[in-house]
């Protein structure tokens, strides 16, 4: 790329820069850069301090953004292609905008998707700050104009009635007795819980509560609650109870959970995208070695059995033995005819 001698090279800006920051920080910076050029075009000669205040960033961050703009522009990336600007002391003026002369706007598809998502959020029971959601929805609908004039139907999940029941109990501050299916252990238990709040995570509704049985805060999926009874007693949450940090999802792998290693074929590589993995490496041929944390080995056994013959347990040995034992038991069940079929000579016995 050709760069005029008087243009400073873009440098890494540490944790705040696009090179070493998080994906969210990078997305925020990209949006700011796309709006920065039209902002400066409308205010030639503006002081950097004033611009930084308007944009809600520090002067240092704004200067780093301007340095990055030096190397942005049209294909060719030589003189006359890149965004250009002039500095007069602490004032800056855009002299060539490379076509970025309008603020960032949502596309019709993006605007409609956002409207639908906000409408669904507004109709979800237990959502806090509903007024803020409705204000944001009104602004976007107004800006989108005729695009959102057509009726859009928003439905809450099939467990909506259960969610409404749980939300009402949370609002009334009542303890609950629930019958709950735990998928990790493949068991159904009865528990008494003291609800803290309702949550929506990845499209699923949860009630976060103090579980008196576990003596800890737990998340209960609404669609796995088979029965719920509101008790005639207030919810009492101990002072040591702390809400879950769900910024990285519901399941949070930790070093104290069992680590399993699987050898997977091409047809089962999808698990590396669906489950959080600690390591994915090459194995023999087209096989991969995949390591991931699991809640317990009972869940892992059912998980591996459900994947089929294209997956082999490498470690731990205990899990490999459990999978082998379950597979042998299943084969033996198929190999042994039941009383009804064995009594009928017309029905041949199944063989291994």
From TrEMBL:
Region annotated Disordered, chain positions: 1-24
Organism classification: Bacteria, Bacillati, Actinomycetota, Actinomycetes, Micromonosporales
Any one of the GO CC terms: proteasome complex
All copies of domain WYL, residue ranges: 163-229
InterPro entries assigned to the protein according to its UniProt record, in alphabetical order: CBASS_pafABC_assoc_protein (IPR051534), PafC-like (IPR028349), PafC_HTH (IPR043839), WCX_dom (IPR057727), WYL_dom (IPR026881)
Name the record gives this protein: Proteasome accessory factor C
Listed Pfam families: HTH_PafC, WCX, WYL
The WCX domain, residue ranges: 261-331
Domain PafC HTH residues, every copy: 28-141
Domain of life: Bacteria
PROSITE patterns: WYL
Keywords per UniProt: Proteasome
């Amino acid at each position: 790329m050709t760069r005029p001698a008087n243009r400073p090279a873009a440098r890494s800006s540490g944790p705040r820069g696009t090179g070493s920051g998080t994906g969210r920080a990078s997305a925020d910076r990209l949006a700011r850069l796309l709006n920065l050029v039209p902002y400066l075009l409308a205010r030639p000669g503006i002081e950097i301090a004033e611009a930084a205040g308007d944009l809600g960033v520090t002067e240092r961050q704004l200067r780093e953004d301007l340095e990055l703009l030096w190397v942005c522009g049209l294909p060719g990336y030589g003189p006359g292609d890149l965004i250009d600007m002039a500095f007069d002391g602490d004032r800056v003026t855009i002299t060539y905008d490379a076509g970025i002369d309008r603020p960032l706007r949502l596309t019709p598809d993006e605007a409609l998707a956002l409207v639908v998502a906000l409408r669904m959020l507004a109709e979800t029971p237990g959502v806090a700050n509903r007024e803020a959601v409705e204000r944001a929805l009104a602004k976007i609908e107004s800006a989108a104009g005729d695009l959102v004039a057509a009726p859009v139907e928003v439905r809450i999940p099939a467990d909506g009635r259960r969610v409404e029941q749980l939300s009402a109990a949370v609002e009334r501050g009542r303890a609950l007795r629930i019958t709950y299916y735990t998928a990790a252990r493949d068991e159904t238990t009865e528990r008494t819980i003291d609800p803290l709040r309702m949550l929506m995570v990845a499209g699923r509704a949860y009630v976060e509560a103090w579980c008196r049985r576990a003596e800890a805060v737990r998340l209960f999926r609404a669609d796995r609650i088979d029965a719920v009874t509101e008790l005639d007693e207030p919810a009492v949450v101990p002072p040591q109870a702390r809400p879950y940090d769900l910024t990285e999802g519901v399941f949070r792998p930790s070093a104290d959970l069992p680590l399993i290693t699987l050898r997977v074929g091409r047809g089962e590589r999808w698990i590396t995208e669906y489950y959080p993995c600690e390591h994915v490496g090459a194995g023999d041929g087209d096989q991969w070695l995949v390591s991931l944390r699991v809640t317990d080995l009972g869940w892992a056994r059912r998980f591996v059995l459900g994947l089929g013959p294209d997956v082999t347990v490498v470690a731990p040995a205990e899990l490999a033995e459990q999978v082998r034992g379950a597979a042998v038991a299943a084969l033996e069940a198929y190999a042994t005819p039941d009383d009804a079929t064995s009594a009928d000579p017309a029905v041949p016995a199944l063989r291994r």
